[in-house]
Amino acid sequence: MTSPKDAPGRGSDPVDGAAFTALVAPLRRELHAHCYRMLGSTHDADDALQEALLRAWRGLPGFAGRGSLRSWLYTVATRTCLDLVAGRRRRALPVDLGPASERAVPDNRPADHIAWLGPYPDADLAAGPAAPDVRYERREAVELAFVASLQHLPGNQRAALLLFDVLGFSAAEIAAMMRTSTTSVNSALARARRMVAERVPAASQQRTLRTLDDARLREIVTGYATALENGDADALIALLTEDVTWSMPPMPQWYRGLAAVMDFARQAPLTRCGSWRHLPTSANGQPAVASYLRRGATGPYLPWSINVLTLRGARIAEITSFLEVTHFPAFGLPDALPATRGAGRHVVAPPGIA
Q1: Mean pLDDT of 237-256
Q2: Most C-beta atoms within 10 A of its C-beta, which of 166, 180, 186, 331?
């Protein structure tokens, strides 16, 4: 896609584009996170942000310094995302599609016709509230449960909730952004809050993580990786809650409860998949582990999944394994690990979490 620096529409002077790029650079990261919350996909957020900045650059003469640059850019980004939401299927996780499987499904195949929710690389996302009196911290607002709940909302409700409760805009400002009335914004906001409250746990992952010291969090993350690498079912069981869930988009089947999850684990990742190595990362404001798999006896370990861990207390309550290897570049992860023993064992507390 054409970049603001090279786009037509305001003349061909490249200085204008370069100056605009420098002007919006401090806001680019938070605008990208906003697009991800709206769309549920890092790849879609990339496209939406690029399109929004192109629209903003072309419309710069009409802005002419009226109001804040941040408010104007959020207006353009929100409208861009709403255009995309209107023309696309909502993104989902396997738990949205049907009941859990009670036993391992050996012929589980990708459901490519479904638009799947994707993980978000949050290493550079600042902590703390985006504005005074907002309901959600920046990292809370990209947690998997929260972003998944947003996908069940119509676009206008999604936008109203994010702009008000995450970003701190007033109802009047949001009405102007969305070209509607303040009454309509307040109504959309109320309906959105009810839906999200039904789907998001009372305790956020940020609250849970604050109860764990660095050493305990490291034990959980390292323990998960080591259990898979060693094929150690008992070690994995010790880390999980009784009602743990494990899902693997784009595979539609998922598992709930220790018996079903461990039946799957014993049938696949602990025994039959091959040899594993792991690297720590952070996704959606949560601890995560990147899995690399080697199927034969030799050769490098290749990307397999980004495993986002949802904790309850000091145990893992949900494992969401995003199997698409196309997620790896956004996390800055290597495209292979060497075959030397222990190449993936240096698992430490994920950045930005502990």
Answers
A1: 97
A2: 166
